Amino acid sequence: MSIDLAVIGGSGLYNFPGLENARRQSVDTPFGPASGDVVTGDFAGKRLAFLARHGESHSLPPHRVNYRANLWALHQLGARRVVGVNAVGGIRDDMGPRVIVVPDQIIDYTHGRFTSFCDVEGAEVKHIDFSEPYTASLRRDLLAAAARAGVPAIDGGCYGATQGPRLETRAEIARMKRDGCDLVGMTGMPEAALARELELEYACLALVANFAAGCGDEEEISIEEIFAHLAAATAEVPKILGAMLAG
Ligand code: HPA
């Protein structure tokens, strides 16, 4: 059965609320195991596949996520449109806790991750165009759906992908701001590039959990606060995706 939308859940989103007739599948990939089973079910009258990026018990840190296996598994099951839900820190003033952003650009500061399906011996070398790292039509659909659902969402912003799992220093964030980053997160890459290699449509729903280091009033970033803000923003995700699928 075809899949209308695949969702990769980030921190705070370990199963998809409201998914009916759910069925779990473990998918073998040439790149090893995905973060967990893909759970497929009915949502808003359509077929949705869900995968928890960090595992359902959040056991995988950002640099240990098998991004290749995750994208491969979703593709293998027939997904062609993928929304990555990512917890982020806000760098831009209007991107404070609980704000939802649909970014349009990426700067990649990660290292030591498998960034391409061409790493495999004998694989065809592909130089994908990545000028626009997210699929424009899917971004538009997400933003239109958010508007229909009455959920405020900011159109555009540059996602800076850091290695984690630690948060950044103030100097690192100041540099990222100078570079043009509006948001900082640990999981946006290489996911977006791998999706493009597989010719999947891909866009990001970035949920701001905190102001990034040095951007808010706080001396320190509290993990408890991050998760409280994330829980609030995460509750809006099914509203947006439901409106998108129903529309
Ligand atoms: N930095 C990096 N990743 C994050 C942050 C942050 O401040 N908040 C949530 N994910």
Supply database-style keywords.
26% helix; purine salvage; alpha/beta; single chain; Rossmann fold; 6 helices; 247 residues; binds hypoxanthine
Proportion of residues in β-strands:
15-25%
Number of helices: 6
Which compounds are bound in this model? hypoxanthine
- Supply the number of structural domains: 1
What is the number of beta strands? 11
Uncertain residue segments: none
Helical/strand content category: alpha/beta
The largest pleated sheet is described as: 11 strands, mixed
CATH 4th-level superfamily: Nucleoside phosphorylase domain
Per the principal axes of the C-alpha atoms, what is the gross shape? globular
**CATH fold label:** Rossmann fold
**What's the CATH architecture name?**
3-Layer(aba) Sandwich
Average of the residue pLDDT scores = 96
Write the H/E string, N to C: EEEEHEEEHEEHEHEHH
CATH class: Alpha Beta
Helix content: 25-40%
End-to-end Cα distance: 20 Å
Task: Determine Rg (CA atoms, Å).
Answer: 17 Å
Question: Oligomer, anyone?
Answer: single chain
Molecular structure report:
It is an enzyme of class 2 (transferase). Pfam families: PNP_UDP_1 (PF01048). Keywords: Glycosyltransferase, Purine salvage, Transferase. Its EC number is 2.4.2.44. This protein is an alpha/beta fold and about 250 residues long. Helix content is about 25%, strand content about 25%. The chain is built from six helices and eleven strands. The protein has helices spanning about 65-75, 135-150, 170-180, 190-195, 225-235, 235-245; strands at about 5-10, 20-25, 40-45, 45-50, 80-90, 100, 105-110, 155, 160, 185, 200-210. Strands 1, 2, 3, 4, 5, 6, 7, 8, 9, 10 and 11 form an eleven-stranded mixed sheet that branches. A hairpin with a 2-residue loop joins strand 3 and strand 4 (about 45-50). Helix 2 (about 135-150) packs across helix 6. The protein binds hypoxanthine. The site of hypoxanthine has 13 residues, from strand 5, strand 10 and strand 11. Hypoxanthine binds near residues 89 and 184.
